[in-house]
Design a protein that fits this description.
With about 160 residues, this protein is of the alpha/beta class. The chain has one domain (about 35-164): 3-Layer(aba) Sandwich (Rossmann fold), CATH 3.40.50.1010. Helix content is about 50%, strand content about 15%. The protein has a 6-stranded mixed beta sheet, with helices on both faces. A two-stranded antiparallel ribbon has the order 1-2. It starts with 10 loop residues before the first helix and ends with a helix.
Length: about 160
């Protein structure tokens, strides 16, 4: 029987993310209002926190240059995935949640105005719409197939990095 291949979230990684998310975020860039509003899907957050690389690069850029939109639904997905797969301690997960709520525009969706192929994705789309997002960055093919909704573009991590 194969061992569980999940990576444990190391103390150094947890400290790195606490420091990154302690930033005040950005409401202005060079004295001007933020020009991009971005919702980062759970799969990107998870990969960034656990593995780093391009997902982390994306989040670092967004923390410093964009308004990041998040919702209780996405926060709960991040917490669950990091607890189960990353074996992150509850105390750290609670601190992460507080930092995300402080740093990001936290939108709470009551009504889901759109239906996707996967009903679990509906709250993600609704959050992005409510948050007036320019971009939804995801790796989820059920969302990517939509390509755009109104002015909001639904893009992969690499597509977004190519834009910046």
């Amino acid at each position: 029987m194969a061992k569980n291949s999940a990576k444990r979230l190391a103390t150094a990684q947890r400290k790195k993310w606490q420091k990154l998310l302690q930033s005040n975020g950005v409401n202005t860039v060079n004295g001007n209002e933020v020009y991009l509003s971005v919702l980062i899907d759970t799969n990107i957050w998870y990969s960034a926190i656990l593995y780093g690389g391009q997902p982390e690069e994306l989040i670092r850029f967004c923390v410093n240059n964009c308004q990041i939109v998040i919702s209780p639904f996405i926060i709960n997905e991040i917490r669950t995935k990091l607890k189960i797969d990353g074996k992150a301690p509850y105390k750290w997960l609670n601190a992460l949640e507080k930092q995300l709520k402080r740093l990001c525009l936290d939108v709470d969706v009551d009504i889901i105005p759109i239906q996707t192929r996967d009903p679990k994705d509906d709250p993600v789309i609704a959050s992005a719409i409510l948050g007036n997002c320019h971009y939804l960055v995801t790796g989820d093919n059920d969302l990517l197939i939509l390509r755009s909704i109104g002015r909001m573009k639904i893009v992969t991590l690499n597509q977004f990095l190519d834009l910046i």
